[in-house]
Amino acid sequence: MCYPAARRIISTCGGATIMKRTIAIAALALAATPAWAIFTNGGFEANSFGGWTQTSGVNNGLSGSPPFTSASLNITPGGTFRGFIRTTGYTDARAPTLVLPRAGTFTAQVNHETQAGGYMSSISQQDVITAADIDPNDGQLHVRFSYAAVLNDPQHLPQEQPFFFVRLRNITKNTTLYEEFTYSNQPGKTFLIGTGGYKYTAFTNVDIVVPAGDLGNTLEIQALGSDCSPTGHAGYVYLDGFGSAIVGPPSGPVDVPTLSEWALILLSLGLGGVAMWSMRGRSPLKLG
Questions:
Q1: Residue 190 and residue 158: Cα distance in Å, rounded?
Q2: Cβ-contact 178, 223 below 8 angstroms
Q3: How many Å apart are CA 67 and CA 146, to the nearest integer?
Q4: Quick one: pLDDT at residue 262?
Q5: 7, 88, 167, 217 from 224: Cα distances, Å
Q6: Under a CB-based contact definition with an 8 Å cutoff, are residues 99 and 89 in contact?
Q7: Is the pTM above the cut of 0.90?
């Protein structure tokens, strides 16, 4: 027989049932609350390129002269996609000071590190930006990610050098929200000296504020790494943390949330509350 506890609102009976109900409510909240991060598998934590469209092509040299933009790309079909998922313990001998993985447990590498051939590899993904991508700290929509480009420097003409390119577009409105173009040894860019003729950038955290009017629109992120157009020198890029959450500081990798903060808080409070109630039912609470 169960008796209500003195001076308590909740009865001491049915503890297991209450625990089950609390867990069920928390699980429902996790399922119903929108994801914190735009883009599926944005941190590559599936240990794969799942969710990403992978393409390849032949780099025929950039059109025009610096500064290069997306209009400078001169890519024709060819080759095969070359990419890798790097995890804890991996060290890039060409860029030895980069801490990998960048965030979480896995980081993507797009294009091959040594096997050149004048090819480029690209990943892209489209997704709808929602209210779940609003940063509660400033009330604005964000798309964030981190990259580090590793590019051999054969001292070619700028339009022939290995390069890295990334672009965020609003597909619904056909507008470009952000693009970044970096070719090897580009003036004005800060490069670290690697080994074997390679130069590389430190990890850069990109934070794009998306206009509020784009809420509900479909966005597309595309990133690519390319060999030089004369075909003999490689270029590739590390990518991580695509989403609306803040990517870790440059000092090293940190986890990138993939669930909403509210869902995690609710789950913690729910389970923590049950644990405290259970302990109170077994022993007196002492202060001091």
A1: 16
A2: no
A3: 22
A4: 39
A5: 65, 23, 9, 23
A6: no
A7: no
Confidence at residue 269, expressed as pLDDT on a 0 to 100 scale: 43
Q: How far apart are alpha carbons 268 and 126 in whole angstroms?
A: 32
Residue 252: predicted pLDDT: 36
Nearest to 258 by CA among 43, 24, 88, 31: 43
Helices 261-282 and 15-32 pack at an angle, to 10 degrees, of 170
At residue 249, the pLDDT reads 56
Return the HEC string of 243-275. Answer: ECCCCCCCCCCECCCCCCHHHHHHHHHHHHHHH
| Of residues 209, 288, 235, the one with CA closest to residue 82 | 235
- Rounded Cα distance between 180 and 174, Å, is 18
**Residues of the chain predicted below pLDDT 70:** 1-36, 249-288
Would you state the pLDDT for residue 248?
Answer: 74
**What are 235's strand-pairing partners?**
151
> Measuring CA to CA, how many Å separate 214 from each of 130, 169, 206?
9, 11, 19
Region for 203 from its dihedrals, namely left if φ exceeds 0, alpha if ψ lies in -120 to 50, beta otherwise: beta
Neighbours of 105 (CB within 10 A): 15
In sequence order, the 6+-apart residues with CB closer than 8 A to the CB of 150 are 92, 94, 95, 98, 113, 194, 198, 199, 200, 235, 236, 237, 238
